[in-house]
Amino acid sequence: MNKKVQKSLDDLLETIFNSTEYREYKKAEDLWKKDKDSQKLLDEYFNARNTLQILEQGNFEGKEEQEKEVKKLEKKVNENKNIAKWFASQRKFQEFIWKQADYLTKNLKFPFSPTPRSRCGKGCC
Question: How far apart are CA 86 and CA 33, in angstroms?
Answer without folding.
Answer: 10
